[in-house]
Amino acid sequence: MSEGLFTQLLDLACGIFLLAAVLVLWRRELAAMVRVFAAQGLALAAIAALLARHEHRWDLLGVAVLVAVLRAGLLPRLMRRALVAGGESAETEPLVNVAASLLAAAALTLLAYAVARPLTELAPSPATRALPVGLAVVLIGFFALVTRRRALSQVTGFLLVDNGITAVAFLAASGVPLIVELGVSFDVLFAALVLQVLTARMRAAFGGTDLDDLRELHD
After folding, report:
1. Where is the chain membrane-spanning (predicted)?
2. Is 104 among the domain residues?
3. Spatial contact of 53 and 61, defined as CB atoms under 8 Å apart
4. pLDDT in tens, 170-197
5. Residues 193-210: what's their mean pLDDT?
6. Which of 32, 89, 132, 171 is deepest in the core (most CB within 10 A)?
7. Which distant-in-sequence residues (6+ apart) come within 8 Å of 87 by Cβ?
8. Cα 175 to Cα 151: distance, rounded to the nearest angstrom
């Protein structure tokens, strides 16, 4: 693969990766959020696969396959099951409206590029120049985490943060060891399983998955 083609494909994968994070803020339908998260998982796997192909690292290719299976397949499936258990279809009352959320995403992306600029100048390369994308997704994930009220929406924000951190690891250090990725992936999988149980219990106790209802648990 030529350097030019690698750069173009990597930029495309990173663009889709960032766009998916923005779409999570734009869409209110929980099922659509799950589909967007699955698409982001594929983009993350593509980033890892491109780096593996460019650097001839077959261990990184194994990590890419693992990312695709877990983050584009298994986790979205568990999230859909949690969505069915929760019995709700949309994020009806986010703390920040869609227009303001998109403006915040743009501001956070600019902040990520400003913060990451000194790092990219240390060792300029196609991968390091894409580093701000991973950081932007981390910031957008945190924003989604604190501005959404439904359990599934907040967990989606948490998973965006995890995807962003993984992307930063791929782009800054050409990936992480397979055993580390396995450990992190199982932690995320465990969190998704807890989500499924939590949404079912909240649905039974409160009739919904609005986390503000947990305030009723205080004495």
Report:
1. 6-26, 33-52, 58-74, 95-115, 127-146, 158-176, 182-200
2. yes
3. yes
4. 888 765 555 455 555 555 655 665 565 5
5. 57
6. 171
7. 203, 208
8. 30
Residue bearing tokens 């589909």: 35
pLDDT band with cut points at 50, 70 and 90 for residue 219: very low
With respect to residue 39, please indicate whether it lies within any of the assigned structural domains. yes
Inter-axis angle of helices 131-147 and 151-173, nearest 10 = 160
Q: Are 22 and 43 in contact (CB under 8 A)?
A: no
* C-alpha pair distances (Å), 59 with each of 70, 138, 152, 179: 17, 25, 33, 10
Q: What total of structural domains would you count in the chain?
A: 1
User: Would the pLDDT of 22 be above 80?
Assistant: yes
Q: How far apart are CA 55 and CA 97, in angstroms?
A: 43
Lowest mean pLDDT of 55-69, 128-142, 163-177, name the range: 163-177
Quickly list H helices, the chain.
3-26, 30-55, 58-69, 75-86, 98-122, 126-129, 131-147, 151-173, 178-206
The gap from C-alpha 100 to its chain's centroid, in whole angstroms, comes to 20
Kindly report the pTM of this predicted structure.
0.81
* Tokens 């083609």 found at: 5
For residue 210, list its beta bridge partners. Answer: 150
Q: In the structure, what pLDDT confidence band is assigned to residue 6 with cuts at 50, 70 and 90?
A: confident
Distance CA 144, CA 139 (A): 9
Q: Tokens 């902040």, residue?
A: 111
Is residue 209 in some structural domain? no
